[in-house]
Amino acid sequence: MGKLKTLGEVTGLRPAAKIAADSARHSVDTFKRIRGLFASNDKTPAPPDYTEDTLPSDKFRQARSHYQMTDTDLLRAQANTYRQFQLYFWLTITALVLIGINFFYGVPLSGTLLLLSIFMISAALTFKAGFTNWIVRTRKIGVTPIAYLTSGDLFPVKYSSEEE
């Protein structure tokens, strides 16, 4: 004869208890990861002090050496902001087109307001990604967004050399 089964196996309580324990363990691990995202990192050094007459390019060099950023780190930051810009730019364009379609076909206002909020958020994130990419490309910190807008160089570049 075969092996006798325990009461937990017969009733299904043992597998259910194992599933519950695994789920609880995964939930705790996920919570710890999420909490770690928002925890302060005391290892990050304070930013360097700048004087009023420090040039933006000198500020960039000081910050780069202070945070020990390599050329690879800067290229990675530039590529990431390029990708962010592309994502948010096309999301902005899509939301704008859908808003136009909603107005043309007379869709209820609630749908248009949702699209309008998506448009405004994605437009702000598009601007942030483009501005950050421009800062890394021009190697200048402490410039205003007006300098970015008046430069005419609004669309980011994935990679560029440091000599530019």
Rg calc: 26 Å
**Could you give the order of the helices and strands?**
HHHHHH
Round the mean pLDDT to the nearest integer and report it.
80
Roughly what percent helix? 55-70%
Distance between the amino and carboxyl termini? 82 Å
How many distinct beta strands?
Answer: 0
Largest sheet: none
Q: Please report the number of helical segments.
A: 6
Class per helix and strand makeup: mainly alpha
Low-confidence region ranges: none
Which of globular, elongated, flat, extended, rod-shaped describes the shape?
A: flat
Proportion of β residues?
A: under 5%
How many individual domains? 2
Write the layout of secondary structure elements.
Elements: H1 7-11, H2 13-38, H3 56-66, H4 71-105, H5 109-138, H6 145-151
Helix pairs in contact: 4-5
Quick overview of this protein structure:
With 164 residues, this protein is mainly α.
What does this structure look like?
The chain folds into two domains: 11-38; 56-151, no CATH class. It is 70% helix and 0% strand. It has helices at residues 7-11, 13-38, 56-66, 71-105, 109-138, 145-151. The protein is flat, with a radius of gyration of 26 Å. The mean pLDDT is 80.
Structural descriptors:
flat; mainly alpha; 2 domains; 164 residues
